[in-house]
């Protein structure tokens, strides 16, 4: 079971990095955001497991369903990582 | 250049066949381009039997990838004309050098003779030569920049047909943006002799590509998810030109 979870984690970690990049770059290309909002969302990247889904669902980027779903990937990857750290997978 | 990367971009060691490396490139591009964008192909039935030359418009650094991803694995498309002299510098150049399949040409660095030799190898291997005839990126979906001289010179020299091609929708990109790759009927070149005939052929090819373009600029939606994709693969000078043009 553990190798499977590791594999899943590796895939999600790569996806998570891509989502962080996509999130950050998408914010920089939003002319409808005020400078303050742009700085706020950009700084929010430090809390990426929370801010990326928040941005996707409530930030008004107009992301399609696939991207909104993918915005949860970093949070799942972090959850798996914490699972490893605290020995949740035996 | 003597290292491995350098050799793959040179005319003698240019891969013109469908190698495992090209299969990998084609598969990855099909996944990447097909996942990011909604690519449709029109006019593929116009393709003659290879070898032939594709002459396309150029709106974005994604264009060669879109074309390779949208076309079948065989015949292999080899690109003429990236200007970079040193493919061992920069991420994008290194990736391009790894996969090969391009004939770099810089008036300062590459002799025309070696470029012609490389092109001849492409045609002898029943491959397709792709050329962005404008030579640089344009930012109007419904317009073409002036073609560089001799867009069809290679096709004429080898007597292979030219297939006009238009990539419509790559000027402004976003996630799942609809992109159409349109091919026109082939234009025969084997009876073209002399400077005037070549100029007439260039004009005919330009008209054929123009006919494939939309009549007016598209209306862009207000929300364009992942709009940074537009300039992700454009060079700094292209980005500056785009900003200056709008």
Layout of SSEs?
The complex is a heterodimer of chains A (90) and B (246).
Chain A: H1 2-28, H2 35-43, H3 48-58, H4 65-70, H5 73-85
Chain B: H1 4-8, H2 20-36, E1 38-42, E2 52-56, H3 63-70, E3 77-80, H4 91-99, E4 102-103, H5 112-124, E5 128-132, H6 153-158, E6 162-168, E7 178-183, H7 195-212, H8 229-232, H9 236-245
Helix pairs in contact in B: 2-3
The oligomeric status of these chains comes to heterodimer
Question: What characterizes the major β-sheet of chain B?
Answer: 7 strands, mixed
- Kindly state the number of beta strands of chain A: 0
Q: Outline the biggest β-sheet of chain A.
A: none
Percent strand of chain A: under 5%
Whole-angstrom Rg of chain B: 17 Å
Q: Based on DSSP secondary structure assignment, what is the total number of beta strands of chain B?
A: 7
Helix content of chain B: 25-40%
Describe this entry's structure for a reader.
The complex is a heterodimer of chains A (90) and B (246). Chain A is elongated, with a radius of gyration of 15 Å. The longest helix of chain A has 27 residues, at 2-28. Chain A is built from five helices and no strands. Chain A is 73% helix and 0% strand. Chain A is mainly alpha-helical and 90 residues long. Chain A has helices spanning 2-28, 35-43, 48-58, 65-70, 73-85. Chain A has one domain. The model of chain A has no long low-confidence stretch (mean pLDDT 93). With 246 residues, chain B is an alpha/beta fold. Chain B has one domain. Chain B contains nine helices and seven strands; from the N terminus they run ααββαβαβαβαββααα. Chain B has helices at 4-8, 20-36, 63-70, 91-99, 112-124, 153-158, 195-212, 229-232, 236-245; strands spanning 38-42, 52-56, 77-80, 102-103, 128-132, 162-168, 178-183. Chain B has a seven-stranded mixed β-sheet, sandwiched between helices. Chain B is globular, with a radius of gyration of 17 Å. The model of chain B is unreliable at 1-8 (pLDDT under 50). The A-B interface holds A 22, 25-26, 28-30, 32, 61-64, 67 and B 175-176, 222-228.
């Amino acid at each position: 079971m553990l190798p499977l979870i590791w594999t899943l984690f590796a895939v999600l970690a790569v996806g998570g990095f891509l989502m962080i990049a996509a999130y950050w770059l998408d914010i920089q290309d939003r002319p409808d955001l005020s400078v303050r909002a742009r700085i706020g969302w950009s700084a929010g990247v430090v809390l990426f497991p929370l801010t990326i889904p928040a941005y996707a669902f409530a930030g008004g980027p107009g992301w399609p369903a696939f991207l909104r779903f993918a915005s949860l990937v970093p949070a799942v990857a972090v959850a798996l990582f914490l699972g490893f750290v605290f020995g949740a997978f035996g | 250049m003597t290292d491995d990367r350098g050799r793959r971009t040179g005319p003698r060691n240019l891969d013109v066949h469908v190698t495992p490396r090209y299969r990998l490139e084609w598969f990855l591009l099909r996944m990447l381009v097909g996942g990011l964008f909604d690519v449709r192909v029109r006019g593929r039935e116009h393709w003659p039997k290879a070898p032939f030359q594709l002459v396309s418009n150029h709106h974005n650094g994604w264009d060669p990838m879109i074309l390779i991803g949208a076309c079948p694995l065989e015949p292999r498309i080899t690109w003429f004309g990236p200007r970079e002299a040193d493919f061992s510098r920069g991420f994008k150049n290194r990736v391009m050098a790894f996969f090969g399949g391009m004939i770099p040409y810089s008036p300062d660095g590459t002799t025309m003779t070696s470029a012609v030799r490389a092109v001849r190898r492409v045609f002898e291997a029943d491959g397709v030569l792709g050329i962005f005839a404008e030579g640089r990126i344009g930012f109007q979906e419904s317009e073409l920049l002036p073609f560089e001289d001799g867009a069809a010179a290679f096709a004429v020299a080898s007597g292979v047909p030219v297939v006009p091609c238009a990539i419509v929708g790559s000027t402004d990109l976003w996630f799942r943006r609809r992109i159409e790759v349109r091919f026109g009927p082939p234009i025969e070149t084997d009876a073209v002799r002399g400077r005037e005939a070549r100029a007439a052929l260039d004009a005919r090819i330009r008209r054929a590509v123009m006919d494939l373009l939309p009549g007016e600029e598209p209306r862009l939606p207000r929300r364009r998810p992942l709009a940074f994709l537009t300039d992700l693969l454009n060079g700094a000078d292209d980005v500056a030109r785009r900003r200056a043009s709008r």
